[in-house]
Structure formats: structure tokens, C-alpha cells
Design brief:
By secondary structure, the protein is of the alpha/beta class. Helix content is 47%, strand content 13%. It folds into two domains: 253 residues, TIM Barrel, CATH 3.20.20.60; 28 residues. The chain starts with a helix and ends in a 12-residue tail after the last helix. 41% of the residues are buried.
Length: 285
């Protein structure tokens, strides 16, 4: 009887969480028509997640960009499920209000599409995310449909897809000719039909993004896709100047936190060397 009671309690909890997720998703979808536009930023750890949530960001994305930004790897394909779940757990602990979306890594669904649903469930059940994101690939619709049917909200991603960028000419703007533009449009519409609640448009011409945004009933989230999308996403470290790389054209530097940190650390070094720190205020008597 005790076990049965726990099972019933667990099922009720899952249903309650699912209802909350559904309401939150519907609120975001409604903003396509009523506004304001949707804001998305990345987080890979607890402190940044708390800041983003308290600042009012709508969606916190645990992006597989952590491979490059946080771990110093060369490609997003080099980060796997266990690492993504580790970081997603930390982010989920820090977020109380925003929607947390876990970025499915390459090995989580593209190596073997039959594992997509199981791995998506791990982002929800183990890491505390409320949704997952998948990049377009040949069998993407199969993966999205399975995850959607399992009751997990899915965000799609078309245009420049970093996990398979080398197959499409590298990291450059996609959809600049009629043929590739039509493929992106078709992919976006197919993802909506498969059950996605939003779609990321990365590095596509602004007119193409505008056409896709107008054709879909779900929100588009742009990154390098111009101002006509229903929302925008950036890598937090990029917009704060914390990542050592040449910034893409679509990045706006909102603060130079690297310079601020550098200055603070140098002051600390000097004060320690000259015996100024710790002072009386930092000393126990």
C-alpha cells in the first residue's frame, strides 16, 4: 500500500509539472501575437542561471555551446549527455521562474535516433529542465515526433546548425539562394507540424527569417536572423565579452566583463603582494 501510494503521488506530481509546463509554453506562444518579444540567454552553471532568472529572461537555454565556451573544446559534438546533464542540473537549481531548455547533444539523438526519447526524458526527470532543443538533421522529424508524443516540449533549430555545420559548408549564413532557403522554410514548417513549440533560426537572411516567422503559428527565436523574429537568443558569455573569440556579426557587446574581471584580479594581486589584503575588515580578532 505504501509503494502504491508513492506511485500515485509520483504520477500526480508528473501531471502537475506537465500542466505547469503546458501553461508556460502557451504563454510564450501567445506572445507571438500579443508581444512582447521573447528573450533567451544561455547558462551553464548555477550563478549565471540565478542572475538571468532574476533579471527577467524568459528562457534559459543550457546550450551545447558550453563545449566551446565553458570547456574549451573545438566542437559542440564533443560534449555528451552526461556533461550536458551535469550542467543542466546546476542551471535548474538556480532558475525559479524562467523556462529551462536543455540542448540535446549530438550523441543524444543524432548518433542513434532511437535513443532520442529516452535522453530527452533524462533532461526532464534527472536535470529538471522543462523542455529540450534539437537541431535539424536528416531524421529530425522522427526524433521530434517521438519526444513530443512522450509529452516533452520541443524547440527546433534550423538554418546554421553547429552540430552538422561541416556538412553544409561550415559556419556561414544559410539560405542565401532559393534552393537552400526553401529547404529551411520546409524544415521549419515540418517541425511545427511535428509538435515544436518554437524554432530557433540561426544565421539566415533577415527576409527569409521574416517569411518563416510569418508562415508559422509558433514563435521564432533568432540568432543572426534579423529583427523580425518573435524573440532573440545570444550566448551570455558573448554579450558580456567573456569568451575569447572573434565575435560573430550578430553579437552585440553589452558589457566588457572580461576587462572588469581582469582589473579586479590585478588589484587583488597587488594588494596581496604589498600586504594590503587582508585588512582589518577581513581579519578576525
Amino acid at each position: 500500500m505504501v509503494i502504491a501510494g508513492h506511485l500515485v503521488s509520483g504520477v500526480r506530481r508528473i501531471r502537475h509539472i506537465a500542466m505547469e509546463q503546458s501553461e508556460r509554453i502557451q504563454q510564450l506562444i501567445s506572445r507571438k501575437r500579443s508581444g512582447p518579444k521573447i528573450t533567451v540567454l544561455t547558462a551553464y552553471d548555477y550563478p549565471v542561471a540565478v542572475i538571468l532568472d532574476n533579471a527577467g529572461v524568459d528562457i534559459v537555454l543550457v546550450g551545447d555551446s558550453l563545449a566551446n565556451v565553458a570547456l574549451g573544446l573545438d566542437s559542440t559534438t564533443q560534449v555528451g549527455m552526461e556533461v550536458m546533464l551535469h550542467h543542466a542540473k546546476a542551471v535548474s537549481r538556480g532558475v525559479k521562474r524562467a523556462l529551462v531548455v536543455g540542448d540535446m547533444p549530438f550523441e543524444g539523438y543524432q548518433l542513434d535516433v532511437s535513443n532520442a526519447v529516452l535522453n530527452a526524458k533524462r533532461f526532464i526527470n534527472e536535470a529538471g529542465c522543462q523542455a529540450v532543443k534539437l537541431e535539424w538533421f536528416d531524421r529530425c522529424l522522427e526524433a521530434v515526433q517521438g519526444i513530443h508524443e512522450a509529452g516533452i516540449p520541443v524547440m527546433g533549430h534550423v538554418g546554421l546548425t553547429p552540430q552538422t555545420a561541416e556538412q553544409h559548408g561550415g559556419f556561414k549564413v544559410q539560405g542565401k539562394d532559393e534552393g537552400t532557403a526553401m529547404k529551411i522554410i520546409d524544415a521549419a514548417m515540418a517541425l511545427e507540424q511535428a509538435g515544436c513549440f518554437a524554432i530557433v533560426l540561426e544565421c539566415v537572411p533577415t527576409l527569409l527569417a521574416q517569411e518563416i516567422t510569418g508562415a508559422l503559428d509558433i514563435p521564432t527565436i533568432g540568432i543572426g536572423a534579423g529583427p523580425h523574429c518573435d524573440g532573440q537568443v545570444l550566448v551570455t558569455q558573448d554579450m558580456l565579452g567573456l569568451y575569447e573569440r572573434k565575435h560573430p556579426k550578430f553579437v552585440k557587446l553589452y558589457a566588457d566583463m572580461k576587462a572588469e574581471m581582469y582589473s579586479a584580479i590585478q588589484r587583488y594581486i597587488e594588494e596581496v603582494k604589498h600586504g594590503e589584503f587582508p585588512g582589518p575588515e577581513q581579519t578576525f580578532h
